[in-house]
Amino acid sequence: MPIIQVEELIKQYDKAQTPSVKGVSFAVNEGEFFAFLGPNGAGKTTTISILTTTLAKTSGMVTIAGYDIEKEAKQVREKVGIIFQQPSLDLQLSAEENIRFHACLYGMFSYRPTFRLMSADYKNRVMELAEIVGIQDVLFKPVKKMSGGMQRKLEIIRSLMHMPSVLFLDEPTQGLDAVSRRSLWEYINNVRKEHGTTVFLTTHYIDEAEHVDKVCIINQGRIASCCPPEEMKKNLLGQELILDAEDREGLTSELSELGLFHKKEARIIVPYQDRTAQEIIAGLKTKLTVLEINQPSLEDAYVEYLNKTGGAAA
């Protein structure tokens, strides 16, 4: 059974003429790195809110780790960690106090009134995570005195304390500097490898989804595409060889003989799908002066999808 199972999910807001989410179905396997993308207003935030038990569905079936999100919401919450796009911290407490209350609420540790009195396991885990995201110097300062970026890092620590089976990341690196972004992703990838944690990602930084196992696009309340990134890139854009030669006529003649469509621009562009770049190059005898392989990124494919559908950027 997939660790996340969504079947015919519908959400109709009061007084809305049409549902925000219109019969969405998809599945996420255990240990999978899953990206959920979509333009603004597509139903992405509504779907995530339902999956994380913060919004009630109208109809449909959703289970997380085998638990029904409505009938067994408590068990679902014990299995998931969430890094929300909007902060949810108590500004009057210190950073460590926010972490401590959260960890004790989940039953991970027995509550003690000070950090010093907490168990060694708790203290070691807090300090390890604080060093990874870079807030060890402000760990015991009031949250209200921390910058927005520091508060973001604190939320990341808090969500990872109980080692969730499913980690929902809603714009997890928003507000982080480049070094912190890299450190966070290195840690999340290690957690996935060591503990088999399932990661459910939404992000404006499409490059962060480049190496996911599956990317799912929602648009106008419906699933538009759900497949591995390479398949999406191939379906939307394909790949291109960029070639040139002193004997351009000879080169284009060879390409025609090989049955390869090509365009003459500043360079000779050869789109390809059914053959590999190596096979094409091996079939050419003309001496090349330019050889480049243009492989589209996931962001290229996503932008191409939005352009074709008239969508706006997420």
Count of DSSP-assigned helices: 10
Percentage of residues in helical conformation: 25-40%
First-residue to last-residue Cα separation? 30 Å
Computed structural class: alpha/beta
Q: How many individual domains? A: 2
Would you give an account of this structure?
This protein is an alpha/beta fold and 314 residues long. It folds into 2 domains: 4-231, P-loop containing nucleotide triphosphate hydrolases (Rossmann fold), CATH 3.40.50; 239-295, Alpha-Beta Plaits (2-Layer Sandwich), CATH 3.30.70. It has helices spanning 44-51, 73-79, 95-105, 120-133, 148-160, 178-195, 229-236, 248-257, 277-282, 298-309; strands at 4-11, 21-28, 33-37, 59-64, 67-68, 80-83, 166-170, 198-202, 214-219, 222-227, 239-244, 263-264, 268-272, 290-294. The strands form 3 sheets. Strands 6-7-8-3-9-10 form a 6-stranded mixed beta sheet. Strands 2-1-4-5 form a 4-stranded antiparallel beta sheet, covered by helices on one side. Strands 12-13-11-14 form a 4-stranded antiparallel beta sheet. The longest helix is centred in the middle third of the chain and has 18 residues, at 178-195. The radius of gyration is 24 Å and the shape is globular.
